[in-house]
Write a structure and sequence with these properties.
about 300 residues, single chain, eight-stranded mixed beta sheet, alpha/beta
Length: about 300
């Protein structure tokens, strides 16, 4: 019946549907075309006052050491910290087949890796912290010329494009735990990393060089995390060709910022640098910077540091 009340109800319903459609389209646009965050990097030298006190105390203790020990520490640091160019040359000559690179999901990290690592280093496979389904969407966006799209909160387009430009034949795979794996039977602890490890081995190609780019904790050598799972499951020849690396900006971690400040103050001034073997550092460094030792040096064989 075409009554006035019916027309009013129909008008209200039509308006409601239009609003829902508008909100759905708005949400889709916001999700599919996210805005690049406008967060200029903070270049202040001291951003962690609490840990800066540790740097000050370390400098004081260092100044009281005998001249011979100070010289030995500085010599050790000068040889243990190398440039990116030196490290890349070392990697080119090495026989590493599995490199687990642990990162913080930040724009600065992804930019650094794209420009200073993936633009200059070849690999056969790149394994990412995403599912195959989501990776396919990312690759589609990249092929369509998209300039920006985040993975875990930070742009991944530049890195993917650089990887493909440098290594046209590289295999890019997503090895994150899938929804089906989440619903399946779980082990006693950290079933997610167990699933990721299985996904990695399913895509592993013996004799090829694999780079795993995941959140930092996944690449620690601690029990139940990804790298430790892979290491324990690998054959002895493969274990000898495995490396875990943490990638950190000088201001992404308080203990690291304190260490970099200390280096600058004692005259070991470097731009981007790498500690290829954290075990090679002078024992006094681990003593002076105990939080750094606990959080990073004990957990990763190599440490890559980029500076602003």
């Amino acid at each position: 019946m075409d009554s006035p009340l019916a027309r009013v109800i129909l008008t209200i319903l039509s308006g409601y549907i239009i609003i829902l459609l508008f909100l759905s389209v708005y949400d889709w646009i916001a999700e599919e075309y996210p805005r690049r965050p406008a967060n200029p990097p903070n270049s202040e030298r001291i951003q962690y006052p609490f840990y800066h006190e540790e740097a000050v105390k370390a400098l004081q203790r260092f100044s009281r050491l005998p001249k011979t020990e100070k010289a030995a520490i500085k010599e050790n640091l000068a040889t243990s910290l190398i440039s990116m160019e030196q490290w890349l040359a070392h990697l080119h000559q090495s026989d590493y087949k599995i490199m687990c690179m642990g990162e913080l999901h930040e724009e600065s990290t992804r930019n650094f890796l794209a420009e200073e690592f993936f633009a200059k280093f070849g690999a056969d496979a790149l394994l990412l912290e995403t599912t195959p389904k989501n990776l396919k969407r990312l690759i589609t966006r990249m092929n369509a010329g998209r300039d920006y799209f985040p993975l875990l909160g930070a742009d991944i387009m530049k890195l993917l494009r650089t990887v493909k430009d440098t290594n046209p034949a590289i295999k890019i795979r997503g090895i994150e735990e899938t929804d089906e794996q989440q619903k399946g039977p779980h082990g006693p602890s950290n079933s997610r990393d167990q699933s990721i490890a299985r996904n990695f081995w399913d895509r592993f190609q013996p004799g090829r060089r694999h780079i795993i780019l995941f959140g930092a904790l996944h690449c620690t050598n601690e029990p139940n995390w990804l790298f430790k799972n892979l290491y324990s499951q690998a054959s002895p020849p493969v274990r000898e060709r495995m490396l875990n690396v943490q990638v950190l900006g000088e201001h992404q971690n308080g203990p690291l910022e304190a260490f970099v400040y200390f280096l600058d103050e004692i005259g070991i001034k470097k731009k981007h640098f790498v500690i290829p073997d954290t075990h090679s550092l002078h024992p006094r460094i681990c003593e002076l910077f105990q939080p750094l030792n606990r959080q990073i040096l004990k957990k990763y064989r190599s440490l890559m540091v980029f500076r602003i």
